[in-house]
């Protein structure tokens, strides 16, 4: 399932009165919960869904944490897609940016993994990193605040 199709499904859920949508195509299964998380799994249909529930709970908590800190002054860098947020290119590598570090527009500041593809996310403005709103390895939603630049 491609990202454009996922985005359309998310928009459909947001615009409609439904609270939850689950779609299965072959062995791919996607569940979208309004106000919650998007869970994309590529597993056999007989695999238990319970394994995905902790991830959904963490993703549902993420927007609430980000909203509390998003009230800070500065430029907010938002996630351009749904995926998993990573602060560094590999687990043992140094983070792309730290709080207080100066960045220029176009500098890579994080990676979002979506459908097994690593997407480098660049700063859309110059400034210094005032806050990092997402924990490493946490699922993020499209439009979710990631960083605040001063």
Give a structural overview.
With 150 residues, the chain is α+β, with helices and mostly antiparallel strands. The chain is 20% helix and 35% strand. It has helices at 3-15, 53-69, and strands spanning 20-25, 28-33, 38-42, 75-78, 83-86, 102-103, 108-114, 117-122, 127-132, 139-140, 145-149. It has a four-stranded antiparallel sheet with strand order 4-11-9-6, with helices on one face. A four-stranded antiparallel sheet has the order 8-7-5-10. It has a three-stranded antiparallel sheet with strand order 1-2-3. The protein is globular and about 45 Å long. Residues 42-70 have low confidence and may be disordered.
Secondary-structure element series: HEEEHEEEEEEEE
Main sheet overview: 4 strands, antiparallel
Find the structural class using helix and strand composition: alpha+beta
List how many beta strands DSSP finds: 11
Per the principal axes of the C-alpha atoms, what is the gross shape?
Answer: globular
Provide the residue-averaged pLDDT.
78
How helix-rich are the residues, as a percent range? 10-25%
């Amino acid at each position: 399932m491609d990202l454009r199709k996922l985005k359309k499904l998310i928009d459909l859920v947001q615009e409609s009165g439904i609270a939850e949508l689950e779609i299965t195509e072959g062995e791919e299964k996607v569940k979208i919960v309004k106000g919650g998380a998007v869970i994309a799994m590529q597993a056999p249909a007989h695999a238990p869904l319970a394994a995905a529930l902790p991830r959904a709970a963490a993703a549902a908590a993420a927007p609430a944490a980000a909203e509390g800190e998003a009230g800070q002054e500065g430029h907010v860098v938002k996630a351009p897609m749904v995926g998993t947020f990573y602060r560094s290119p590999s687990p043992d590598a140094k983070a792309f940016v730290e709080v207080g570090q100066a960045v220029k527009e176009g500098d890579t500041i994080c990676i979002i993994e979506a459908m097994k593809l690593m997407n480098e996310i660049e700063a859309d403005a110059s400034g210094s990193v005032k806050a990092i709103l997402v924990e490493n390895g946490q699922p993020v939603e499209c439009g979710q605040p990631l960083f605040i630049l001063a």
